[in-house]
């Protein structure tokens, strides 16, 4: 089982219905049969705790759909009284998952495990993807958009909104070690069968690479392996590719007609500014001429990069330097712009 597929709120309601104390010991005890992790030793010191206020706050801050994995990560990062125990628990959990031949974790990672951040100004795209994923037929999605427009981040937000296990699959990790004919096909089939059995959604970035992967030396291509799975309503796949590479799908009609295609446009500059102001609230107190100057600079110097990626990249760079007291926005704006240009000249 995956902790990321377990809803924290549902576990708390289960404890409430049985008049059991609301604490982490009781919550994890409900999962002992699935995880095979026995809570003993120091855990027993906390079995009478009343943590209802803590968990209510987590649900209030992160929403009713927060999964147990993210709740544990939050308690771990906030250095709660459970931090050491949670750390040991997660080590045992990962070890147990590996022993259980976690093929999904071997070739990728669960997007629910990423740091939770709000995806802004993509509400319409989120609605369309959610509709497609809940369809009975043709429930596969292909995102088309330039690099840096936020394709992977959008899919991460879908995983959280739907409390859905979506695994980012690294095709190169499947190919590595596949020296002989048939090895890639075997590993790919194993991955797809596991996703089908567990009803886990797969996400392939650079999805165009699947079309010809594996068909060297007379082997079967990844696309041909995928086709029968894409017809199964219990199997769901999300792909992402660039506008240029999307043309490859027009050559394989049988593959492309199993997808809903959704074009993801670059975010307008004003919406990107709003994202920055919400993510970095310190900028609300900045002189607006300075704030706007940064975007003028990004537009003029980094013509081949897109919003919101280039703006998020710049402000992450700036605030990292500010924390180290290397510069200040009020006095060193030109220094910051020059240093950022120097760091990114190769892709400017």
Automatic annotation (TrEMBL):
Gene Ontology molecular function: ATP binding; ATP hydrolysis activity
Name of one Pfam family that matches: AAA
Family matches, as SUPFAM superfamilies: P-loop containing nucleoside triphosphate hydrolases
InterPro entries: AAA+_ATPase, ATPase_AAA_core, ClpA_ClpB, P-loop_NTPase
Leader sequence residues: none
Residue intervals of the AAA+ ATPase domain: 137-265
Keyword NAD assigned: no
Taxonomic superkingdom: Bacteria
BP terms from Gene Ontology: cellular response to heat
Keywords linked to the UniProt accession: ATP-binding, Nucleotide-binding
One GO cellular component, as annotated: cytoplasm
Residues annotated as transmembrane: none
Record's protein name: Endopeptidase Clp ATP-binding subunit B
